[in-house]
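User: Hello, can you help with two protein structures?

Assistant: Certainly.
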Amino acid sequence: MPQYIQITFQQIQPEQQEMLIAQLAAARFDGFEESDQTLQAFIVSDHYDPDLVQEIAAQHHLTFTVQTIAEQNWNSSWESNFDPVIVDDFAGIRADFHEPIQGVEHEIVITPKMSFGTGHHATTHMMVQAMRELSFKEKRVFDFGTGTGILAILAEKLDAGSIVAIDNDDWSISNAAENLDRNQCSRIHLGKAEALPEDQVFDIILANINKNVILDHFESLNNQLANGGILVLSGLLEEDEPDILAKAVQFPLTSMEKKSRNNWICLIFKH
């Protein structure tokens, strides 16, 4: 059973919150709780790099405290702060302790563990909006950095022919497997990132991660996208857009659409 590190940042200004969360997410922090002038960030202890956190805090002139917490304490706190994600009348994402969501076409029930962060609400909302606009029927789908498995689960509900969902984190894989079972999924192949064959090709690739991971894997994502395929990217802030577009022009990709929500963005490309 993993232990977690809780970092509490003090005296945060509103304009610092989103950038700080994005930087911490890139440093493998998976959960965030925001309140007036404070931010609590959570990370599996094995992933914690104190020097990197100190560097990030110094950039923002912030002080912080460090605390080790047990999984059961984290889960209790996390559940109490998890709100459903509802995307119009299309999809609702809730925890099993919430009441069923009425009036949506698709409902996904998850266990909201560490792999679902505050910023993830906005980016998940946009990814689900983008998925609503695409045809998934019989398509080959790749969920790159699946986390809780939400996007893969929705792809199956949208009649995708086959879905591959990967993550590099054992905790996320375990959480996703639990959620796939909870939603009675049968067409999703879930595994670690290194297990994916490089020559496998997909019609739709979904990547809701962060800028650095996307940039590092952009070439392989392009190579695994079929001609005419769609690449949907999020986990990105407004200020990340120039770097992503500069990378995209190196490949045969056409920018199709941009979505924005609370300073987070979703970019859609066609091969």
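That covers the first. Now for the second protein you mentioned:
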Amino acid sequence: MAAELDIRPTKQRGQNFVIDPNTVRKIVREAGLETDDIVVEVGPGLGSLTLALLEAVGRVVAIEVDPVLAAALPGTIARFAPDRRTDVDVVAADALRVTDLPGEAPTALVANLPYNVSVPVLLHLMESFPSINKGLVMVQSEVADRLAAKPGSKVYGVPSVKMAWFAEVRRAGAIGRNVFWPAPNVDSGLVAWTSQPPPTTTVTRQAVFAVIDAAFAQRRKALRSALRSLAGSGEAAQAALAEAGVDPLTRGEQLHLGDFVRITEALEAG
């Protein structure tokens, strides 16, 4: 099919197409989908995962930034799943800029995400479409570790805490390199999640995320120093941390999402 379309995967768009049918079936199986789910897929590429999704769910909305691939996907569906061709909507756009989708609100996100933008795309879609209540993405293995990491882990960081705002995250398996075309030079991993209510708080998600960003901007810094700029001074940062019940000498990687929420509340109250 790639030869028919004269497609050459590009590093710029992070294109590594899944060509192994067992892998796409595993992705669909691990995602925990129901027949009435409406699934957002990012980067459908040649359509192998799209076809597997159509065997399990009611509708797929595929977001594809590559205009050649976006134009080709309806033909692929008509060729290999003709009775489902009306159940796929193709949105030819950059997923980072998508804030509206056709049809009913999506209920799940399943994708082989481009490695170079995987975390920004995931967080953007979770923010933009709160109806998404579950999902599974394939990302670079170390990114999968970060997304699913818990406080105290060496890889716990900004993606871990921000994703926790939206969902309970877990690792869902490892994927070898030979299932892709072209084969990447890194290993891949699956990350699955189920949505959970955001923390009950008087502050905004954006304010909490700003504190998270500041706390991890320099990982070796204690929170008193890391939050100095955001708070206005080291003294103000220390006072807010004390109010939140957090040791000023603690580092960001030791804190749960709830800790960051309390710190944000204290900063705004101070």
